[in-house]
Here is the input.
Amino acid sequence: MKAIKAPCVLLAAMFLAAPLFVSAQQYPTKSIRLVAPWPPGGITDVISRALGATLSESLGQPVIVDNRPGAAGTLGVAIVAQAQPDGYTLMMTDVPSHAISASLYTKLPYNPIKDIEPVALPSRSPLVLVVHPKFGINSIPRLIEYAKARPGEFAFASSGPGSITHLTGERFIRDTGVKLLHVPYKGGAPATAALVAGETGMYFSCISAAIPHIKAGRLTLLGITLPKRSPLYPDTPTVSEVIPGFEMGCNTGFFAPGGTPRQIVERLHTEVMKAVQQPKMKDILTANSAEPAPYTQVQFKEHVAREIRDWGAVVRSAGLKVD
Here is the structure.
């Protein structure tokens, strides 16, 4: 009996896996749900809809965007984490928020690493450090000097507690030793409006939201969170030139449920990276000061793991927790 037990178990496993393998080979055969865990109108939603339309053509099946906002994106992520891993429920969300949630929330209904499979990074754009002109601050060293002379008085805006703009401000505090006053708002638009009105002193903004105000002189641009200087502002230093290692961005990633067959994940990666090279997608990315990241699927998975580790360190240093 023992001599034939192992082969029988192996044969049974092969039969169970066979339908999934055949399904992966034929994928897709029906419409695909693309969850966007943020409200309509934001950069994640805009890029999700443009990418969904392009993928609908290349995959030969409708890709339908489903906005599921709430709890800093975790409600939408939970839907995908708990979905059948068959390639028909996918997700577009910003990588930093996904990574921050892994440490910020003590009772997530999913495992951010095991239950979510990174597929591709179709859009990345920097944050920019901007200040109100009334303070007369024109460089990052001057900002640090100004804030240190006024501990706990100089205010930085954020798009909400636990957001990338909040945690980037906390990272700035950790890395420079300044003491700032955090003023959270309900979204990026009101945070930007408050800074333009002079209600706060500084803000780490997504570049697309800040550009009109920078051009109009309503905000002063001090730095960009890219590893290299931006071709849009070649004379503006990266923040990392002053604070080594200070690099992050508004990266919007494409994900699948954990356990999705490798053949489907690889097909989706290929199709997403082909889609972002199409003229319409290029125009939309450019309009949002974004570009695709030339990562392989494995490299993107490693990138997400690094983001979870690095943002976790910031969350812990700031002493932040959400039950």
